[in-house]
Amino acid sequence: MKNVRVVVVGAGVIGVSTAVCIAEALPFCSVTLLADKFSPDTTSDGAAGILFAAKFPDIPLERQKRWFKDTFDHLLAVAQSQHSPEAGVMLSSGWQIFKEVPAERKPFWAESVIGFRFMTEEELKRFPDHKFGHAFTTLKCECSSYLPWLENRFRKAGGQVEQRTINSLQELSNSYDIIVNCSGLGSRTLVGDNQVYPVRGQVLKMEAPWLQHFIRDGDGKTYIYPGMHSVTVGGTRQEDDWRLDVDEGDTDSILKRCSRLEPSLSHGKVLSKWVGLRPSRRNPRVEKELVQLPGRRVPVVHNYGHGGWGVTLAWGTALDALGLVRQCLQEMQLQAKL
């Protein structure tokens, strides 16, 4: 097939990953990455970007495991290459701790991370409010470096980048043969999906270079993630909350909760405060459909609704989206023959 025009809408970690996968695997496609915001202004840019996952209720577990493992393996290769500092990808070791023993003591992703084990009683002594924990090495992917690095990789594969706002798929129907929707919360407007909702997250970046290990409370609301240039501390999980301003009440709460887990944080210096809206959904939507637009039916591949797990699942769901684009191409070939 000669020069099929593909557009990927959305330039967060899901959109850019998907655009790279398509452009590199399908050189006969001309791929455009189109978004109203690019790094450093995306939700992904503020993400702590540490890799572990929660279980989605209605997606086969094998598929979720594959999403996680594909992303982990892709980022591990980056972390172990010369590109690591430029791409903002590094190994990170630490603890996930629980006030009560969770129903599933061993999470589904335990086999994919490095050296997963249960914490010893000795290790748990420093966290007197917590009864149980996981120790493991995972990856941290800092999107403020990773997204520009990936965008560069996309351009090298022949991809085009365009910055503009679109409000409906109809605006794209005459210019492209396949539309790939990675618009996150934007899918409420773009495809009328009210199942996507915001979960507000506030984090602080701190200077505390002596901290080397991550600590995450199993409830997902309190965490300390040392990175390449600063420590990300958080956080909040406020459903259906659209506020993008920093809430100083949240700032105080974050510092108080994190200092309980890591008392030396009281000597850290707050460098910046950030708020983002996670594009949450009961399950991420990774599927294709034919959409009737004025004059023709256009194949649309959806890849959005990852919530707070975008970085963790981005490469895995991008590979799935690539597979769906391949299916669209096969169906278009069949149509052409008929």
TrEMBL record:
- EC numbers listed for it are 1.4.3.1
Q: Which cofactor does it need?
A: FAD
Record's GO cellular component terms: peroxisomal matrix
| Positions of FAD binding | 43-44, 307-312
Q: What class of enzyme is it?
A: oxidoreductase
Does the keyword Flavoprotein feature in the UniProt annotation? yes
InterPro entries found in the cross-reference section: D-amino_acid_oxidase_CS (IPR006181), DAO (IPR023209), FAD-dep_OxRdtase (IPR006076)
The FAD dependent oxidoreductase domain covers which part of the protein? 5-318
Q: Which domain of life is it from?
A: Eukaryota
Where D-dopa binds, per the record, is at 223, 278, 308
A Gene Ontology molecular function term for this protein is: D-aspartate oxidase activity
Quote the SUPFAM superfamilies the UniProt record gives.
Answer: FAD-linked reductases, C-terminal domain (SSF54373), Nucleotide-binding domain (SSF51971)
The UniProt entry, under Pfam families, shows: DAO
The protein's matches in Gene3D superfamilies, at most eight in alphabetical order, are given as: D-Amino Acid Oxidase, subunit A, domain 2, NAD(P)-binding Rossmann-like Domain
Which UniProt keyword terms apply here? Answer: FAD, Flavoprotein, Oxidoreductase, Peroxisome
Q: Where in the cell is it found?
A: Peroxisome matrix
Reaction equation(s) it catalyzes: D-glutamate + O2 + H2O = 2-oxoglutarate + H2O2 + NH4(+); D-aspartate + O2 + H2O = oxaloacetate + H2O2 + NH4(+)
Q: Which GO biological-process labels does this protein carry?
A: D-amino acid catabolic process; L-aspartate catabolic process
State the PANTHER family in the record.
Answer: D-AMINO ACID OXIDASE, D-ASPARTATE OXIDASE
- Function summary: Selectively catalyzes the oxidative deamination of acidic amino acids. Suppresses the level of D-aspartate in the brain, an amino acid that can act as an agonist for glutamate receptors. Protects the organism from the toxicity of D-amino acids. May also function in the intestine.
* Protein family: Belongs to the DAMOX/DASOX family.
Protein name, per record? D-aspartate oxidase
